[in-house]
Amino acid sequence: MRRNKQSALTETTTYILLGFKHPNHGYGVMKNIAELTHHRVNIAAGTMYGAIENLLKQEWIEEVPGGNARRKLYQLTELGICVIESEMERLEKVLNHSKEIMRGVK
């Protein structure tokens, strides 16, 4: 999950980060992503908890009060917000370039 200004986030990482816009626990994010994507993206528990560990190390999310020993709550940090906003800008450019290139093709 390393990221510099030149690299893109994976689709899974993007969805996980978005899932922590508001305080949530890993299972809640997994469920929300599955529902949002109509089960096109399903994240296994091991993947989620490994991602949480990495996102904590990157300081993109932080633990917040209100959880318990079984279900800790996490939320985006200011850095995490910057990362997701940067990714949204990158994806928007890709979409705009794709539309520009494909205009008139059919």
Estimate percent helicity. Answer: 55-70%
Quickly give the structural class.
mainly alpha
* Order of secondary-structure elements: HHHEEH
Rounded to the nearest angstrom, the distance between the terminal CA atoms is 38 Å
Shape: elongated
Output the CATH class name: Mainly Alpha
| DSSP summary: helix tally | 4
The CATH topology: Arc Repressor Mutant, subunit A
Q: At CATH's second level, what is the architecture?
A: Orthogonal Bundle
Strand content is 5-15%
- In CATH, what is the homologous superfamily? Winged helix-like DNA-binding domain superfamily/Winged helix DNA-binding domain
Strand order of the largest sheet: 1-2
**Tally of discrete structural domains:** 1
Instruction: Please provide the count of β strands.
Output: 2
Poorly predicted parts: none
On the 0 to 100 scale, the average pLDDT is 93
Main beta sheet strand tally, sense and closure? 2 strands, antiparallel
Task: Provide the gyration radius in Å.
Answer: 15 Å
Protein name: PadR family transcriptional regulator
Organism: Lactococcus hircilactis
Domain Transcription regulator PadR N-terminal: 21-80
Pfam families: PadR
Explain what this protein looks like in three dimensions.
The protein has 106 residues and is mainly α. The chain has one domain (11-102): Arc Repressor Mutant, subunit A. The chain has 4 helices and 2 strands. A two-stranded antiparallel ribbon has the order 1-2. A hairpin with an 8-residue loop joins strand 1 (61-64) and strand 2 (73-76). It is elongated and about 55 Å long. The mean pLDDT is 93.
